[in-house]
Amino acid sequence: MTTETAHRAGEAGHADGTGTWAVLLPAERYEAERLVHHDTLEMTGLTGVARPGPGDQVAVLADSPPRLVALGRVAAPVRRHREDADDPQSPVEPETLVVAYTRRAFDEPVPAGRLSLDGPVTALAPAAFRALADRLGPPPARRTWLVSLDLPIEAGTPAEAVRLFWSYVQELGPRELPAFVSPSGDEMAMQAFVLGAEANQDPEEDD
User: Fold this and answer.
1) Angstrom distance (rounded) from CA 104 to CA 195
2) Which residues are registered as beta bridge partners of 68?
3) Triad 67, 201, 27: Cα angle to 5°
């Protein structure tokens, strides 16, 4: 799929009355977004480039090869002071681009085809954005899941065990700790997940 791109904010296409854009995530940022749920995507360091405005629609892509991983809309810009928010003379970071997610596909990215990107932020023609968004299809039905994390912890008291539990969770996180998930009411279908993907935790099955 070949798309037209605009290099100035005023040239961005419009769908449903808003601009349409693509945002490219570096590999490490994609992994971070995939491992932990976030309501918004925040990007900094975009000075000197055309960028979306509030309300614009955004397709979030992972690189190499380009894959669509989410859709969103740009929220109001945020300005952050590096030193003292109460001191108007303190240095100010460039405006942060904040994208509120409206649809996620981090677990099953969709190929973006021959999408032409100019950098971390690219304006898209409305038809190109719609064609890209249509590749996601309908969202999956939502249901209730039971998610658990079991850790054997040696401690002198229950309260100490709980404190150690949360310390281990913060220290190790989803990159090292397996989480167990099953549909509510069907615990026999439990699966283990590590690094956001299903992992076999039964050593007998590896033999």
Assistant:
1) 17
2) 61, 110
3) 25
The one-digit pLDDT tens for each residue of the chain (207 residues) are 333 333 333 344 454 547 999 999 988 889 889 888 999 999 888 877 888 999 999 999 998 889 999 999 999 865 555 554 455 454 445 578 999 999 999 989 999 988 888 889 999 999 999 999 999 989 888 889 999 998 999 999 999 999 999 999 999 988 888 899 999 888 888 888 887 778 876 655 554
What are 180's two structure tokens? 């167990």
* Tokens encoding 101: 């997610």
Q: What is the pTM of this model?
A: 0.73
- Please report the domains of the chain, with CATH numbers, ordered by start residue: 5-134 (3.10.590), 145-206 (no CATH)
Cross-strand partners of 32: none
- Contact status, residue 42 vs residue 25, Cβ threshold 8 Å: no
Q: Which helix (H) or strand (E) holds 71?
A: strand 67-74
The 10 Å Cβ neighbour count of residue 165 is 15
SS3 52: coil
Query: DSSP letter string over 90-136?
Result: S-BPPPBEEEEEEEE-SSS-EE--S----SSEEEE-HHHHHHHHHTT
